[in-house]
Amino acid sequence: MTPNFVHPALLWGLALAALPALIHLINMTRQRRVRWAAMEFLLLSQKRRRVWILLRELLLLLMRMTALALAVLTIAQPIFSRQGGFFFGGERTHHVILLDDSFSMSDADGEAGVFDAAKNVVERIGAEAVRQSLPQSFTLLRFSRVGRGSQATRADLLDERVASDFSLKLEKALKEMRPSQFATGVVEPLKAVGQTLGDANGERRVLYLVSDFRQRQWNDADEAKKQLQSLTKLGFEIRFVQCADRLRSNLAVVSLDAEPGLRAAGISWFMNVAVANYGPTDVKNVSVLLSEDDKSRPAVTIEKIPAGKTVAKRFQTIFPSAGAHRVVARLSEDAVEADNARYATVDLPNDIPILLVDGEPQASGARFLQWAAAPGGATRTGLRPTLETPRYLGLKPLGGFSSVVLSNVGRLDTSAIRALEKYVADGGGVAFFLGDSCSARYYNEELFRGGEGLFPVALKGPADLPIDRFDPAPDVQFDNHFIFRIFAESRNSFLQTVLVNRYFSTVASSQDTSAAQPARTIAKLRNGAPLVVEKNFGKGRVVAFLTTAAPLWNSWAKNPSFVVIAQDLQAYLSKTHEEQPVRLVGEPIRLSLDAADYDPAVRFLPPDATAAPNASTDAKPDAKGKLEAVFDDVPQSGVYSAHLTRKDRKPETRLFAVNVDPAEGELALMEKTRLADRLRGVNYRYDLASQWQSANEEPRGANAGDAFLYALLALLVVEMIFAYTTSYHPVSRSATPSPGGRA
């Protein structure tokens, strides 16, 4: 058992333990022999007690030498290993490293990077553990390997005993590590430490949180504070190691989305790409490289992005064929690479089927809508209208249509109403155009039903809009709504010339905004009466035009704006308006299939098979009777694909865009003082990676300094008593008279 010493330089003082023996020898050389006859009697008495006297003097000399040695050892403070801890309270040390490998840690300037600094600190902690004589163990857990979903937490090293070759083992493990594309906060990793390691069981535990300490992670630190306090109660000593030394400039593609509108093969549509400037200075002429199905297309340039701001740019795209397509936007390299790319996917149909229903035999209103949706000739809108009578609604399924438009329909049977309500509740869109065949009483009783039905408002009846030659205001005033967005932006004069002669007036109380599904006026007449109203119904939408589609009660169908608004109406109602869900790295991909149409076998392919292997799985029935396939291993951004087989044996591919969390690219650092304020009450030590030194970790174990001090005090007391009893003390004369009467 070889101890370490807190102050090893003081051990030279052990030589002082020889002083009592040296003094004794010096005193012996100073004695003179004097022969005296009366001493013969004393010498004879001394021979009888010689052995006992020498033993007492030797013990006294040893006690004095030991006292000096104990004094020196007390000051030097020896540290004994756990074997000695049986007597001195020793313990082994467990180093627990939480290594932040979220993609903000890839922040780099040239060759040096934040993650490299973090790995260097971990290596130094490991090297210091090897140098200790006390038993040491090591746990290394990366943020990206914290359990999520069905995956369990996976530590790189778990309670690994530190031996002489541990530094080489740790170096090899760290060499293969790279920053991930995850945006994991600190809360889940802190929870994982407590769940994985549990109680301390008598060992000393030191938790090192090696991170870049960005403001985004610590601005709201209440939950992290709770976890740190919980770990402190479990016996952890908390050490923070800050690895980021300064704020670097960083641009990030934060969104790449299709604009709402009609999307089909062979027609152009628009997308928006947005770039955030997370740096401290403005940037100009930012070029965003674009590709469609892995083919480059002209880049877009953003003239200026102020510091801390996000700027979006619109661009037009077109795909000639139907099916799944991918779009990618990229920036040039900067401090953080992971957020320089953004991915989007779109599944385009050949065309978008819509159902037009007219209540008149001549179907005049529906034919104008049909012409607006599909003018014919070289003009392609992507819409495929089907014209039917009201009976069709109750006889045929509506799920195959993207939207349903009713023009001047006077009555519907019960089955048709139920079919429409189910269609809209499931996410479909319905539009009403009124006319002479419509009855206010019927619509109120069967379609409005006190606000519970499809129709948005209660009707009074037809009304005329009188001509006012002294009022220059146009007949129709439009809200800033998706259907009228083009004209709202450009102040197009076509809408100024639309004339309305007749319309259905409404009951004011029916537009109560406190209702569960309130109606909203999106266009009104110059007298303030509603002309176009909408409401949500279940997952779908309903829009009601309180005038005719045909140019009978108005001149709209003869106005050039009618075609644009009719097509935007279809885009607004269409199921294609549904946005693709935002999928982030680490979140499982879930695929829902109709069991009647697809085989359960599904094969998922990642964007890079070398980074994440493909997986074949069987879709399992869910609670709704559909098949669900889940792909859990999503460690990188890009476009993932799922390969399916239909019941008719035709293959099908679906694409899923997975992106990094752009907020992780915000590199602003949390200041030490602000961090301390947010973690008030948590006992921790804060160090910079650049200043981390092995001297920060003093040898630990059983410190015998106190034990030696107590032994020294006890020995001094014994030595004083023993010295007193060993030395000669003459008896003092008593003042009490003797029995003989003499004093």
Give me the secondary-structure topology.
Layout lengths: L3 E2 L13 H11 L9 H38 L1 E3 L1 H7 L4 E7 L8 E2 L2 E2 H18 L4 E7 L14 E5 L4 H10 L11 H11 L6 E8 L3 H4 L3 H12 L2 E7 L8 E8 L10 E9 L5 E10 L2 E11 L4 E8 L5 E8 L10 E8 L3 E7 L5 H10 L9 E6 L3 H4 L7 E5 L6 H12 L3 E5 L6 H9 L10 E6 L11 E3 L6 H6 L11 E5 L13 E6 L4 E8 L2 E6 L15 H13 L9 E2 L4 E5 L7 E5 L9 E4 L1 E2 L5 E5 L6 E8 L5 E9 L12 H7 L5 E5 L13 E2 L1 H22 L17
Parallel strand pairs: 3-6, 3-8, 8-9, 9-35, 17-18, 17-19, 19-20, 20-26, 27-34
Antiparallel strand pairs: 1-2, 2-36, 4-5, 6-7, 10-11, 11-14, 12-13, 12-15, 15-16, 21-23, 22-24, 24-25, 25-26, 28-32, 29-30, 29-33, 31-32, 33-34
Helix pairs in contact: 1-2, 2-16, 4-5, 6-8, 9-14
Any overview of this molecule?
This protein is α/β, with parallel strands linked by helices and 743 residues long. The protein contains 16 helices and 36 strands. The strands form nine sheets. Strands 18-17-19-20-26-25-24-22 form an eight-stranded mixed beta sheet, sandwiched between helices. Strands 7-6-3-8-9-35 form a six-stranded mixed beta sheet, with helices on both faces. A five-stranded mixed beta sheet has the order 27-34-33-29-30, with no helix packed on it. Strand 24 (520-525) and strand 25 form a beta hairpin. Helix 4 runs antiparallel to helix 5. The model is unreliable at 82-90 and 694-700 (pLDDT under 50).
